[in-house]
Amino acid sequence: xxxxxxxxxxxxxxxxxxxxxxxxxxxxxxxxxxxxxxxxxxxxxxxxxxxxxxxxxxxxxxxxxxxxxxxxxxxxxxxxxxxxxxxxxxxxxxxxxxxxxxxxxxxxxxxxxxxxxxxxxxxxxxxxxxxxxxxxxxxxxxxxxxxxxxxxxxxxxxxxxxxxxxxxxxxxxxxxxxxxxxxxxxxxxxxxxxxxxxxxxxxxxxxxxxxxxxxxxxxxxxxxxxxxxxxxxxxxxxxxxxxxxxxxxxxxxxxxxxxxxxxxxxxxxxxxxxxxxxxxxxxxxxxxxxxxxxxxxxxxxxxxxxxxxxxxxxxxxxxxxxxxxxxxxxxxxxxxxxxxxxxxxxxxxxxxxxxxxxxxxxxxxxxxxxxxxxxxxxxxxxxxxxxxxxxxxxxxxxxxxxxxxxxxxxxx
Length: 412
Hints:
The chain is α/β, with parallel strands linked by helices and 412 residues long. It is built from 14 helices and 14 strands.
């Protein structure tokens, strides 16, 4: 937010009087520290003078916080900057010390689970794949062993910051529990408890769509630097959404926000896997697209077609594949228009294999949104594909831990 806009800010957030946290000296210090650390992460290498200018903090405060961060090895100095025009002492640029923390991320999908280890700059240094399977406890026991092994093999990190876990379906973030999913037939699973016991590290879990949304705001920095409200639509075997409201993930009162894939768009439609009828998921998910292709092409179409293969067929000009994907794009646009009317995001981001056919689907989605939004200004909302072609949910799992290190705490 620019200084000009700060004076016009309207404050409408009621303090949480059931769990009061007023702004004392320690809280204020933590807020300033996180802001400066985020600034360095976002704009590194950067000088102390530029940090003071951008943050609005005085140089003495910046210097005090920087000295703390240097002592704790969270940041390091990087050579010398350019000499000033007056010939004075050149500034010393600062950057994040990528070896301060190792960060683990787990991206759980119905068929495959990916484990990654990244440095404090979110650069992945190790990655392993596992079959997800039907027994969640066995999977996380195996993952716990692999995390312990990776810690031994990567002693270059000062310490491990934690494990972020992306899960498909309903997740109770507060309890760290997987609840249910229409694509992953597990029962309720205490994922955080299992992993913390197995690794001795703090564990944060969240739904895959919310993780993908978090990845966009933490790692798609140049695209969304000035945006605080985003809608992420995750298109895979199921359909779900992640909401960023005022710069933070919106989880809702029961930690289930974002399940718009199970919003009925045809009350007389077929019965969905969730038990409802006519869900958006039935018309705009990968499963819907593949079923549509089989219907158009005919049942005797040979070997099973994956979504990745279907997109390749679109690129080669296969008419049946193009027709199936166009219809999915139509339903995506219809659903997104409703969400734009209700949520008024500053941008809509779409992730999934189908976005590799962006040249085909983007005009259709944009056209449906333009025709169906109420506010003419909403027609200008950018609709973009994810910044990550491959597994934004993995980047989001890593971002869950990064978010704990860099985000500003709520007060009041």
